[in-house]
Amino acid sequence: MAQYRIRQYRDGDYEAVRTLFARGIMEHVPATYRRMLGSGRTQLGLLALLAGVRAAAGCWAPALAAVALALLTAWPLVHSLASSYVREALATDLRDIRAAYLQAPDSDFWVAEGAGGAVVGTVAAALPDEPAERGAALELKRMSVRRDHRGRGIAQALAREVLRFARARGYGAVVLSTSVVQVAAQRLYESQGFRKVGAFSPSLLGRLLHFQIFRYRCELPAGPPPPAP
After folding, report:
1. What is the C-alpha to C-alpha distance for residues 227 and 220, in angstroms, rounded to an integer?
2. pTM for this one?
């Protein structure tokens, strides 16, 4: 028997939802930093910096110090990329969840409730940001599962809730965005029938850090959705 249940968002979930979302995004900062360091362009740039300072200074100590400084400077840049996204979300749709999702057309917000009533997962459905998708698809947003509750099928159940919701309203597809470092999320979405349809950098800083957002789409079968388990 599942040790959680999926239900619609309530106003009493507000702080738990916002905290869960923020913590989930900030968890990916180390992976983003490692990805940046593993990029061939980053490594080439560091090598050029090392060689240039070594040639100018005539010794290795300043060159190594310059590389160390570059690495130390990169960490707050990566951190700021994630924290700026969190601040934007908390100031927009997650500022008034009821208005953004429960009172908006063809939108909803669900939580996974664990033992004792704790919120251990979230997901939302909304009209897509892309005007070209309006009327044809809904967007899966704000998927997050608390770290100590992962691997229990909660994310799969939340994703299926959005897919059922979209089919019940006659939409032919569900779209979503996830980041290049969220490998587990990519595997989850692909297991639910989503396929990658595009990629982009969210900002100039994202391009500098070799950070991409992947766009996914799931085509829905015609007919009524299956009943919820």
Report:
1. 15
2. 0.89
Nearest to 142 by CA among 171, 178, 173, 174: 178
User: For residue 123, what are the β-bridge partners?
Assistant: 110
pLDDT in tens, 52-109: 998 999 889 999 999 899 999 999 999 999 999 999 999 999 999 999 999 999 999 9
- In angstroms, the CA 181 to CA 211 distance is 8
Question: What type of residue is 34?
Answer: R
**Angle (CA) 87 158 226, round 5°:** 145
**CA pair distance 71, 67, nearest whole angstrom:** 6
Q: Pick from 177, 18, 10: which is nearest to 90 by CA?
A: 18
Superfamily of chain region 1-229: Gcn5-related N-acetyltransferase (GNAT) (3.40.630.30)
Distance from C-alpha of 227 to C-alpha of 86, rounded to nearest angstrom? 34
DSSP of 45-66:
HHHHHHHHHHHHHSSHHHHHHH
Q: Does the CA dihedral 160-165-170-171 come out positive or negative?
A: negative
Query: Residues, the chain, total?
Result: 229
List the end-to-end C-alpha distance of the chain, in Å, as a whole number. 11
